[in-house]
Amino acid sequence: MVGIKEQLNPFFNPKSVAIIGATTRTGPGKFNPIENMMGFGYKGQIYPVNPKYDEVLGWKAYKDVKEIEGDVDLALVVIPRQIVPAAVKGCAEKGVEAAIVVSQGFGEVGEEGKKLQDEIVKTAKEAGMRIVGPNTLGTHNFFDNFTSSFIPIKKREYDPIGISCQTGLWFAGFPRLKFGKILDVGGACDVDHVDSLRYYTEDPDIKQIFIHMEGLRPGRGRDFLEATRKAKDAGKDVIVMKTGGTEAGSKAVVSHTGSLAGEDKVFDGALKQVGAHRIRDYTELQILSHALLKLPKMNGNRIAILTHHGASGVMAVDAAEEFGLKIAEISEQTRNVVQERSPKWLPIGNPIDIWPGLMKDPKGMHMASLKAVLEDENVDGVVMSLHIADYSPWDVGIYGHAEAIRELAPQYGKPVIAVPVGSVQDGTRRALEWIKNATVFDDIRAAFRAFSALAPKGKEEQK
Amino acid sequence: MKSKILQELSKKGREILNEHEARKILEEYGISCPKEVMVEYAEGKKASDYLKDLKNMGGCPGYPAYLKIVSRDITSKTDAKAVKRVTSDEEARDAIDTIMKNAKSYKEGVKIQGILMSEDVSADETREIFLGSTVNDQFGHVISLGFGGMHVAVYKDVEFRVIPIEEPDVHGMIDALKGKEMLGKFRGMRPVDMDLLVKTTLKLSKMVEENPEIIELDVNPLLVGPDRAVAVDTLIRISR
User: Fold this and answer.
1) What is the pLDDT, as a whole number, of residue A390?
2) Which of A91, A262, A263, B29 shows the greatest Cβ crowding within 10 Å of its Cβ?
3) ipTM more than 0.85?
4) How far does Cα A160 stand from its chain's mean position?
5) Which of A439, A452, A458 is nearest to A293 (CA)?
6) Which domains does chain A have, with CATH numbers?
7) What is the 3-state secondary structure (H, E, C) of chain A?
8) Are A36 and A155 in contact (CB under 8 A)?
9) Under a CB-based contact definition with an 8 Å cutoff, are residues A447 and A265 in contact?
10) Phi/psi at A276 (5° precision)
């Protein structure tokens, strides 16, 4: 059998697609995959299959997939469930090696659906064909302009993130989750999260992998762990959202261990074991995805806090405790740099209150203090709690914090996270977001959650 | 199946091993258990005779000691009130009568295999750890580590990992426990021997790895102190 890359390539970047169950209806609310594909800029060959039509959206239509003259890389099956097994058989006979079954009503709904699904799987196995679905939106690929989705999607900027999910929800994306490729395993009758994880591991376009799963097929857990280890070895971060699952104690057990070993608890431990990042909600996902993509990893877990307010310094200390990070013991050198620019009465420690010093020389204070902590050997990461006044010149201008970050952050391999407060922060965001090694988060806690993902895991690695 | 003792017990048709049987397998893998002696159950035998027989056996621990009913039908001796700590012959005789009565009335048809006298290894500085293993549908055999004794049922401060595990995995489990501070210098106690705790966990993981017939395992508690780690009570269930 060919490798996973060859097996799944047709799902992401097919040279030709047959749409079995093509429709001529177009426009909003008609959910026409051919219209979407074309709108998305797909440049390959489209073969509509529907005995009712001679032509669909300018493409010659076929009565049966077997009548198509050319090779078919991918079949998109969008027909009522009863006739899906026959269509898949037709694809197998035509020599199609990849099919997305969009149709619903299979294993997820009961015995009859399960029987139809088993038939599809049997056909595919015998023919060496891979199936995505059933009950799926299929794939999107921003890199090569392909989508199988019947829900319209616009072209946009994208990041080297690959998603494996079992719901169409993720196709919408999030402001800080601009994925580049996505595969919805749906009912996962064949292609599952382990397959997509292996595919993304080999895919040079992808640097980060996000998986949303409700579960795996029985016995597939170890394959999943092995695939996650390999992805990590290939330098790719793996983020997992695991939801649902049966409670512990459902089986007849005699031991405490058996009654404690709920699916969530076991998954949680397994994910920690292979260094996957587990997230619980959309907010946490965006924090981690963005931080892991944008910021350098830390060598330790000691954070320096530069703050405009004593209060947010206290919040930072609380957040550090919550996420298992240390408040850095700043060096004598750092202390001296800050002390020189601060009133004599101000005791200098970490959190470093830079406000009194910047009253005299804002830009100079930002530059000097940030440089000091970035050069400090006792510091692994920096958070800056910034007070942004409500009119725009101050956003990026007079304070000089943006200049300091822009000039200094790229020179050191340490993450710098700015947390501005103020009703107008757009200028600061724009000024900082593209800078190497730096970014902006809305909250102190978010910054520390990000640091916790960037910090080394395991006892040996911690300083 | 690697363990000879486990093979023999399996051949005899055992599914749930009693404490006395389970400890032999642990000892095969180099995990310490308390000193103990067992006298077999005999219908109508008097408490004083049990005690005499126990004391006459080689390796009988001195007082304080625990007296326990050995029965495969009782998986929690605490729940069945089938265990008692004793400090003298007089207490021991009373205890044998009491726990025998409690065990028999615990549930219908309880079969008793014997009476066990076991060293009281709880020293001032020990912490109760909970180790275990079970089989998960998706991952197969997993191992657990957490805080034991009564805490298991209430706080559920337990971490799971997939077997096989390595030393950093055990450190990861310990680090993830909410109560991990209890293992360090804590309320006048010296820190536990962390290395010993880690090694014991690895030995147990190895035991399950080499004997996958073990489908459930509780070591509760493993008493860990500054210089000892002793598996006080062990329950093993093997697949039939």
Assistant:
1) 54
2) A91
3) yes
4) 9
5) A439
6) 4-284 (3.40.50.720), 298-454 (3.40.50.261)
7) CCCHHHHHHHHHCCCEEEEECCCCCCCCCCCCHHHHHHHCCCCCEEEEECCCCCEECCEECECCHHHCCCCCCEEEECCCHHHHHHHHHHHHHHCCCEEEECCCCCHHHCHHHHHHHHHHHHHHHHHCCEEECCCCCCEEECCCCEECCCCCCCCCCCCCEEEEECCHHHHHCECCECCCEEEECCCCCCCCHHHHHHHHHHCCCCCEEEEEECCCCCCCHHHHHHHHHHHHHCCCEEEEEECCCCCCCCCCCCCHHHHHCCHHHHHHHHHHHCCCEECCCHHHHHHHHHHHHHCCCCCCCEEEEEECCHHHHHHHHHHHHHCCCEECCCCHHHHHHHHHHCCCCCCCCCCEECHHHHCCCHHHHHHHHHHHHHHCCCCCEEEEEEECCCCHHHHHHHCCHHHHHHHHHHHCCCCEEEEEECCCCHHHHHHHHCCCCEEECCCHHHHHHHHHHHCCCCCCCCC
8) no
9) no
10) -80, 150
Contacts of A217 in chain B (CB under 8 A): 138
Burial of A27 (0-12, 13-18, 19+ CB in 10 A): exposed
- Chain B contact probe: residue of A213, A250, A257, A326 with most B CBs at under 10 A: A257
- A249 Cβ under 8 Å from any chain B Cβ: no
Task: For chain B, give the mean pLDDT.
Answer: 92
Cα distance between residue A209 and residue A228, in whole Å: 10
Count, residues in chain A: 463
Ramachandran sector of residue A109 (left: φ over 0; alpha: ψ -120 to 50; beta: rest): alpha
A244 touching chain B per CB within 8 A: no
Mutate to test the interface with B, among A250, A273, A323, A460 (most CBs of B within 10 A): A273
Q: How far is CA B22 from CA B14, B34, B219, B235, in A?
A: 11, 13, 10, 6
Q: A458: pLDDT confidence band, cut at 50, 70 and 90?
A: low
**Which has more pLDDT, A123 or B76?**
A123
Q: How far apart are the first and last CA of chain A?
A: 46
Angle at A83 between CA A81 and CA A85, to 5 degrees: 90
Rounded to 5°, angle at Cα A125 from A121 and A131: 55
Q: Give dist(CA B95, CA A87) in Å, integer.
A: 75
- Which tens digit of pLDDT belongs to each residue from A108-138? 888 999 999 999 999 999 999 999 999 999 9
User: If DSSP codes are grouped into helix, strand and coil, which group holds residue B45?
Assistant: coil
Q: What domains appear along chain B, each with residue ranges and CATH number? A: 4-31+123-238 (3.30.470.20), 36-119 (3.30.1490.20)
Provide CB contacts within 8 A for A442, sequence distance 6+: A419
d(CA A61, CA A37): 16
pLDDT in tens, A26-65: 999 999 999 999 999 999 999 999 999 999 999 999 999 9
CB spacing of A260 vs B156 below 8 angstroms: yes
CA dist A200 and A198 (Å) reads 6
